[in-house]
Amino acid sequence: MHYRNYGFLLSNLILKDFKIRYRNMSLGILWSLVNPLVMMGVLTFVFTRLFANNQIPHFAVFVLCALVPFNFFTVSWATATTSLLENQALIKRVRFPREIIPVSSVLANCLHFLIQIALLLTFVLGFGYAVNPNWLWLPVVWGLEVVFVCGLAMATSALDVYLRDMRYVVESANVLMFWLVPIFYSFEIIPPQYRLVYQLNPVSAVVLACRNILLEAKAPPSSLLIKLFLVSFLSLGLGTLIFRGLRRGFADLV
Amino acid sequence: MTIGGPSVEIRDVTKSFSHHSTRALLKSRIAGWFRRPQGGRFYALRNVSCAVEAGQSLAIVGPNGAGKSTLLTLAAGISFPDRGTIVTRGSIAALLELGSGFHPDLTGRENVRLNASLLGLTRRETMARFDSIVEFSELGEFIDEPLRTYSTGMVMRLAFAVAVNVDPDILIIDEVFAVGDRQFQAKCIRKILDFRNAGKTLLCVSHSAAVLEQLCDRALWLERGETVMSGDLREVLDAYHSSAQERARAVK
Fold it and tell me: Which domain does A213 fall in, by range?
């Protein structure tokens, strides 16, 4: 077999996505910051002015710790799910490994994720939290989230070719996730019998780990990290299997 | 890497499409469990075989809907047959469409990089060929302007310039010669002839007999997905054209 290095193709597709999105906008990259800032403002208003019974200090930054990884998850999962159909011209006409399409879609969103991470860290420091050695866990935790989304996106993008309803399933799942991920509430209020579910959901595991690291200045518990690691790579493995099982029909069905 | 045997070997290939493939909605899937399959299948190719040796070039001719493009997508490894086998030896570039992945908001330079990487070039290969691509396209300064400012002819010239600079072992071309003015077309044909003379393999669909006569030495004539004739280009083209004329007369 001919081995080829597809890194150049992958980087070109990521750059294309990013350039096209921002080239015709006067505010450019600042748009990446608007959504989390507005959400942070609204949630902070609701839960410190309307339902003002929580004991959480610095609620704004507490919420932002969750919104940044949550936003990355929902946006990249939803866009990657429709990515194969959106690139049907390429799939019908060009030969290259099809996995590159959903994966580059997720990775293109990583650029927005990085900008939002910069925003998050600015807020964390602005609220008086200090840099601590546990920050070294942050790239690991966020990296595992990217692995998780890539696996999920491969499965749902391949299924979307066969069942166009898949995108609506993903949209609904994202709405549910807003409530099922501890965004505006803390892990402590979750009854013990439900905690395992939260730890096994990689998105909420990432949120919990971010709060451990940034707000409590401690390393995430190793039990949480192990679960995050296992579920993320399980997702990647299953996603790859589903994708490989379905990809032969892509050129005929997109 | 290349072991003995033809560059492209297509053995007894059949390819069909479902008439209802566009109805990929949950509703019709669920309905499908309770109903017997309807509509049947459309056979784009039935038991087609051919082999192209390294250095040879094969033309595929036939009326619209004969299965020519389907055969090319199968040979290019983009879609897969229901039955039969396809073996290819060497790297393949398929020009089934010019300018795959071109985007109007990107500059010519950015589009060249993207298109070249889609056609299988690495970063280093693209850098090395970039100047000859721009020179071939005759775009000059325009290379750093966004593609939406180009005329159709300019876009096509750029697309063809990338394509002819890919330099694979096997080149698959689907009717993409209607590019630019006559002088530019002649330049494209010359470039493909160079490629052939370098011992590479060519698979080519075109409705222009003049183009095929310049580029190919053998031909495969398809009609409704079945082989009518295959062999020497001249003989196949003569038979094909006289049958087309007979049919035209019969219509009158």
Answer: 3-253
